[in-house]
């Protein structure tokens, strides 16, 4: 990190710039009430962007396009759709999409607009409405670009001034111009109320512009500086994002993996991105590494150096599992090889996918809880498993039926960046993207497996607990049954490589996959099963009473695909073995094996290498996705007591990283409760 970047980073971490923003409310419902819907959406965007004024944050802001207003204008877009709402509600704003950055960078906004003109007479009336609305959006963008260009010239900011003569209206010509386009696209899509627009395979679509700059004489250090300044620019508005918590902002970036022919695609720009993230130690972008059985240990060691910083990333995804899994779900091999990750971990297709990968939740402990209430009808464990399967199928069908009645609004701005919408004139609200699949998370897998194991061992095998006593204890939330709770809690847990309990985890996941995968949705796509939880480790858990693993009512589950919070584990290797042995090809909605390792492990080269080998082992054994939190429980407790001492302490919350002090207490406590492994 050079002095210029260091000063810019200090400016970011000072957070004084947050005081500049205006806090004004504006409601546009009446303003756009009588317009056709696509034009209504465009007009709201136009008013939103026209009220923005050039704001430069600090003396060396070479990106601009910073939010002036904390609150985006409100508008009730729904009246056109009254009567069409299903139980799932109505989606006006899309998220977890990786847009076609390559096309936007190559052609610019004017180039995309020209495509709509060329196709105007080839599409239907709704297509022409989409194109007309997109033109309104482009013209609004152009007005703001002119404002920024003039302001940059006035301030002597020649770097940005020269870039804005070309981008974003025309195609980028070098690496810096390409980063300006990237910053601008994130800015306008957020103004259009699309959070979680992920960055996709940055080292692939940015590679031509990186190479152009190198060809023109740019050095490694100069490219690194631009990358670090660009990464800093992505952190300037994290406090006004509309995620579940601050930091939950969707800015995930994927590095490495294979190209469309299956060849290794890790390149010099990939390494620069890793170095930039390691230097800066900020929450965005969240780095994801694509790996496979042939990935050398050296790359895992490189990733571990980043994990060591306490950022909670990189997250690793296994091409050997993910690509075949996506093909089984109907994705073309070429597209599957070009997969990225959504805001957290969900596997999505770059450029041509409008999948909704977190539309629903399979609450595994809920299924087991419901089956447990019918336990008296079971003569053996196999009959109990059949009840669990029935409940999983019921929840899955209930979810799919509900979400198949949802309504999805047109969106002219976003649609122009998703292929092949411009070519066909079909907006993403009408299913214009190539892929329109729905993903359902699978939360509480380990808790469900553990509860099933306790029932099998204590009720059916050892017969130490009667069904009547168990049901009474669960109904009482273990009040007055503490000895029984301890007995149940002492049964084998998923994460210790015990075949019987791990088999329970495999059973519930197979039931889920069989019930969900490739079932049709109403947008011409299919459903996909996964192992993620997101915030559901709290939300879904709060809906479930006491369970037979010793968990009390409403107690949290483990994060995503990980052991339960109460499990006493033998060590990280046994945990890896338990979770990597499952058939994960059929659970390719995503959801990482999540593990916490005490930060003291990273204090020498030997410890770092052990962590790298652990990650490699998980991948080589068939794991699909893994993320590691380098944490220290004592530090986190001290940060709760004295937050002023830790303004920039970062933790992995679920599929994203955030500043510990900006999290609600429930999420802080969940991170603190997770098992810390040492070696």
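Q: What amino acid sequence fits the structure above?
A:
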């Amino acid at each position: 990190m050079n002095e210029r970047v260091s000063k810019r980073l200090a400016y970011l971490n000072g957070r004084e710039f947050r005081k500049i923003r205006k806090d004004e409310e504006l409601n546009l419902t009446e303003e756009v009430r009588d317009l056709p819907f696509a034009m209504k959406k465009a007009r709201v965007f136009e008013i939103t962007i026209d009220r923005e004024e050039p704001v430069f944050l600090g003396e060396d802001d070479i990106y601009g396009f910073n939010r002036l207003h904390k609150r985006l204008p409100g508008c009730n877009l729904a009246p056109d759709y009254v009567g069409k709402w299903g139980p799932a509600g109505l989606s006006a704003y899309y998220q977890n999409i990786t847009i076609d950055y390559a096309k936007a960078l190559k052609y610019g906004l004017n180039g995309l607009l020209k495509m709509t003109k060329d196709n105007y007479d080839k599409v239907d009336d709704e297509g022409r409405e989409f194109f007309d609305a997109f033109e309104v959006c482009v013209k609004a963008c152009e007005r703001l670009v002119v404002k920024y260009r003039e302001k940059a010239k006035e301030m002597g900011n020649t770097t940005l001034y020269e870039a804005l003569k070309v981008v974003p209206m025309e195609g980028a010509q070098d690496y810096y111009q390409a980063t300006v386009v990237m910053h601008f696209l994130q800015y306008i899509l957020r103004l259009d109320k699309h959070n979680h627009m992920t960055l996709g395979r940055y080292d692939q679509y940015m590679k031509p512009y990186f190479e152009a700059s190198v060809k023109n004489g740019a050095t490694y250090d100069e490219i690194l500086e631009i990358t670090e300044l660009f990464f800093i620019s992505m952190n300037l508005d994290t406090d006004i994002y509309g995620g579940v918590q601050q930091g939950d902002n969707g800015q995930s970036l994927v590095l490495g993996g294979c190209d469309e022919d299956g060849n290794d695609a890790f390149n010099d720009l990939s390494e620069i991105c890793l170095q930039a993230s390691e230097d800066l130690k900020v929450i965005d972008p969240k780095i994801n590494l694509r790996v496979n059985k042939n990935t050398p240990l050296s790359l895992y060691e490189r990733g571990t150096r980043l994990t060591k910083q306490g950022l909670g990333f990189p997250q690793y995804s296994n091409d050997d599992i993910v690509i075949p899994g996506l093909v089984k779900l109907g994705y073309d091999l070429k597209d599957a090889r070009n997969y990225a990750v959504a805001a957290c971990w969900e596997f999505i297709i770059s450029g041509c996918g409008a999948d909704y990968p977190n539309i629903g939740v399979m609450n595994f402990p809920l299924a087991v809880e419901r089956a447990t209430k019918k336990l008296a009808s079971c003569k053996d464990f196999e009959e109990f498993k059949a009840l669990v399967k029935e409940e999983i199928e019921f929840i899955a069908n209930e979810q799919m039926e509900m979400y198949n009645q949802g309504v999805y609004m047109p969106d002219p701005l976003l649609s122009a960046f998703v292929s092949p919408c411009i070519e066909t004139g079909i907006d993403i609200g009408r299913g214009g993207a190539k892929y329109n699949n729905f993903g359902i998370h699978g939360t509480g897998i380990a808790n469900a497996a553990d509860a099933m194991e306790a029932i099998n061992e204590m009720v059916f095998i050892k017969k130490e607990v009667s069904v009547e006593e168990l049901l009474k204890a669960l109904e009482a939330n273990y009040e007055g049954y503490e000895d029984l709770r301890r007995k149940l809690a002492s049964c084998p847990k998923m994460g210790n490589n015990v075949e019987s309990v791990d088999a329970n985890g495999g059973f519930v996941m197979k039931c889920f996959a069989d019930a969900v995968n490739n079932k049709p949705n109403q947008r011409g796509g299919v459903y996909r099963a996964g192992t993620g939880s997101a915030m559901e480790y709290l939300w879904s858990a709060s809906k479930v009473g006491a369970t037979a693993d010793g968990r009390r009512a409403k107690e949290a589950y483990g994060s995503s695909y990980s052991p339960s919070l109460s499990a006493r584990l033998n060590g990280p290797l046994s945990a890896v073995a338990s979770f990597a042995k499952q058939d994960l090809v059929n659970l390719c909605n995503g959801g990482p094996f999540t593990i916490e390792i005490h930060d003291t492990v990273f204090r020498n080269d030997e410890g770092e290498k052990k962590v790298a080998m652990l990650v490699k082992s998980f991948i080589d054994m068939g794991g699909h996705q893994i993320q590691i939190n380098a944490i220290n429980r004592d530090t986190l407790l001290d940060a709760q007591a004295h937050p002023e001492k830790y303004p920039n302490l970062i933790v992995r919350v679920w599929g994203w990283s955030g500043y510990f002090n900006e999290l609600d207490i429930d999420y802080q406590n969940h991170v603190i409760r997770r098992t810390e492994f040492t070696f």
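Q: And what stands out in the fold?
A: The mean pLDDT is 93.
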